[in-house]
Amino acid sequence: MSLSNDEVNSSESEGFINENNLQIISENSLAKTFEELGLKSWLADALKAMSINSPSEIQKACIPPILKGKDCIGGAKTGSGKTAAFALPILQKLSEDPFGVFALILTPTRELAFQIADQFRVLGNGINLKECVVVGGLDMMSQAIQLSRKPHVVIATPGRLVDHINSSAIASFLGRIRFLVLDEADRLLSDTFVEDLAVIFDSIPKKRQTLLFTATMTENILHLQDTQEDPNKKPFVYQVKSDISTVSSLSQYYVLIPSHIREPYLTHLLRSEKLSNKSTIIFCGRCRTAEILRVMLVELDIRCTSLHSTMSQQERLNSLGKFKAEVVKVLIATDVGSRGLDIPVVQVVINFDIPRDPTDYIHRVGRTARAGRGGTALSIVTERDIELVRNIETRINKKMEEWEINENRVLESLNEIATAKRVATMVNFYHFIFLKCLIRC
Ligand code: AMP
């Protein structure tokens, strides 16, 4: 494999290619201000209004080549300024030749789509940007009306965009796009989205700039650069080094307990002096578990809200809004909440279920200890999870420490928690029956 860097040999991005074909840029050859990266002052002003005064590493590396028309593959974790790294050059190019639809941003989850749209809206305020979010779970008709008004930027999840392509004339709008962005590209390029992406790629011009950003750089993504034979058209590739694993400001703990008493331990942790009143995300593997935990914790007077795929999109947005605004301190989420969400306030991540894939663990715990702040990750490990935890520790190259817990205090509350769990399971059961009846009616 060879990667050309002759298109990116400006003073801003001098460097060399390492053995993994990643662009290495020496720190002192990088621009220090947004203007030095080639961005116009109205964009620098919009950033200042957000108290962002200097570019982050991924922005320093990727903005100049994108402005020069290069395709780009960027690896950086959430919170590193990845979204602005593609939004800023797109907005600048849009301001030079405004039309709609100018850019299509694809992302795997609905919440991420709204988060990206928020950043475009704020940064593009100076040019009256019209952006449109096209995701499942919300009214298709109003999305179709918005699309017919030819927004400058469409931010979409693949499935719903394909529904629109198949059912309306918007495919012709996509026929002129200049930029395609795949955010969380490793996830978008997985089997789940293959068919939808094929339909979308057929509806957009071949001549365009393609930008791939991911928090997890995979071999598959790196191989994409080889599909381009013309060395002048090879993408610029850059990965921020610290993304490989978890950050050092994150403290990682485990509690080892029998699987049938996870709920009492979870409740004890949430009530404990160290963790109560901290902004906490509890991750679990299934929507049903998340819902039972939510009802159980509410029964136990612990204010919480949830985020999973059996909730309506409006419920998901409301829930996330309450958590972000710190109206509610505890969010119970499935892995729909593990990727990309930028919630600055998260202090603790609890893994109620241990994820099978160590990458999911890294994404989950990456919701805390962001932007140099400290954070705590606590995994509830049962007799069934030992091997999974070993795999995670190998991947993060770190041993988790044991969290001290007073078992007698946990045992004291067994009855109270068993009652709350029974109520929660009943509520969940009746909800399920109610939904079944509703579907039959
Ligand atoms: P990301 O999820 O990687 O797009 O990061 C988004 C978060 O990073 C948002 O809270 C932005 O306000 C923030 N951000 C973007 N660029 C910068 C920067 N250059 N310096 C500090 N924060 C930034």
Question: Count the helices. How many?
Answer: 17
- The overall number of domains is 2
Please bin the fraction of helical residues.
40-55%
Please state the CA-atom Rg, rounded to the nearest Å. Answer: 23 Å
Distance between the termini: 59 Å
What keywords describe this structure?
Rossmann fold; about 450 residues; alpha/beta; disordered N terminus; binds adenosine monophosphate
Note down, in words, how this protein is organized:
Residues 249-411 form the Helicase C-terminal domain. Residues 63-235 form the Helicase ATP-binding domain. The protein has helices at 41-49, 57-67, 82-96, 110-123, 140-148, 158-167, 170-174, 185-188, 194-203, 219-223, 262-271, 287-299, 313-324, 358-365, 386-396, 407-412, 414-440; strands spanning 15-17, 23-25, 72-75, 103-106, 131-134, 153-156, 179-183, 209-214, 236-239, 250-256, 280-283, 304-307, 330-333, 348-351, 375-381, 401-402. The chain is of the alpha/beta class. The chain has a 7-stranded parallel sheet with strand order 5-6-4-7-8-3-9, sandwiched between helices. A 7-stranded parallel sheet has the order 12-13-11-14-15-10-16, with helices on both faces. A hairpin with a 5-residue loop joins strand 1 (15-17) and strand 2 (23-25). The longest helix is centred in the last third of the chain and has 27 residues, at 414-440. Adenosine monophosphate binds at residues 50, 52, 55-56, 59, 78-84, 342.
